[in-house]
Amino acid sequence: DTGVSQDPRHKITKRGQNVTFRCDPISEHNRLYWYRQTLGQGPEFLTYFQNEAQLEKSRLLSDRFSAERPKGSFSTLEIQRTEQGDSAMYLCASGAGLAYEQYFGPGTRLTVT
Amino acid sequence: AQSVTQLDSHVSVSEGTPVLLRCNYSSSYSPSLFWYVQHPNKGLQLLLKYTSAATLVKGINGFEAEFKKSETSFHLTKPSAHMSDAAEYFCVVSDADSGNTPLVFGKGTRLSVIA
Predict the structure, then answer these.
(1) What is the pLDDT of residues A44-82, one digit of tens each?
(2) B-side interface with A, Cβ within 8 Å?
């Protein structure tokens, strides 16, 4: 299967700890997005990369959040000093060229205790 | 700013009866519109998309949606519900002038199918 993959699928951490998630997009896709989904809500945009350049960040992305996409391949999303409000599903999506649709990975479910 | 409003948080239908999931959009630009489905413990899957071509769009698994600019609507329909259709459905809008923009999701409609 060559879809979008995310690791880990589940993460439980204590408040104040740092966590890092990884996303591997579909190999030929140059666009990569991170979204966050809380219970009962639709996904909300966090940030977007085109190749290795981070082109857009949402106001939801506080200074505790940082994302990278070295070499325009996989991406990491790090949350520092986690808070209980960070508990959510973190989704990664990728897209190719000028195509509008995005393909989503299975997500990483974060629980902050 | 773009937004979508899914008019029902939960829809329940009997197996074999038609499905209608309602969505209204707001966009300053020519929109691209999508429906995604999310089954429990599975990733979001694209059902269908509208990108300024034909206003009646056919998707996977027998679903279709009609873009109505005058009503700013993009309702999702299926003639006959199947048990496997039970899932969360999201109406999504994006800026049609650029394929690079993020997707804006509605809050979702949970579809239940009763045997």
Answers:
(1) 999 999 999 988 888 888 899 999 999 889 999 999 999
(2) 32, 34, 36, 42-46, 49, 51, 90, 92, 94, 96, 99-100, 102-108
The type of residue at A70 is: P
Enter the tokens of residue A29. 């896709």
Decide if B19 contacts B84 (C-beta within 8 A).
no
Q: What is the DSSP letter of A83?
A: -
Query: Phi and psi at residue B61, in whole multiples of 5°?
Result: 60, 30
Cα–Cα distance, B36 to A17 (Å, whole number): 33
DSSP secondary structure letter of residue A84 = G
> Which residues, listed in sequence order, are joined to residue B31 by a DSSP beta bridge?
B95
Does the pLDDT of residue A1 top 60, yes or no? no
Residue A82, helix vs strand vs coil: coil
